[in-house]
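FIELD: query
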Amino acid sequence: MEFITRSPQETERLGAALAQYLLPGDVLAYTGDLGAGKTAFTRGLATGLGITDRVTSPTYTVVNEYLSGRLPLFHFDMYRLHSADELFDIGWEDYLTRGGVCAVEWSENVEDALEDPIRVELRKVDDDPKQRVISIEGGRRFADLSL
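FIELD: result
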């Protein structure tokens, strides 16, 4: 499925809409350039999961945990990791068993560790700095997803 958002707020709304369909153990594998809206999308996921904490990029911490919603949200940034082995070193398997949702930025850096993720690609549109094209692949349960 492909969506077009025209502002960070619309990107967040799409994330919030997707959150309604998420189940414990779901992994979202994000791809997209710097500034493509991955953290904005995750803020929306958090809102949709009922998380009240402020969502920030985990660039320097590798993972941020948000536990106040209907499901825990584990927000990873793999920009600084170079292999799936490094992901396992930080306890990836433990996160998968905690009954939450794992949102993984720069997922291509740890592709070998991700089994059947929901793929979310965020792309900037050259002629409109606020517009994004967001593709979501991951199964039939998202068939009714809309902004």
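FIELD: remark
The chain is about 25% helix and 30% strand.
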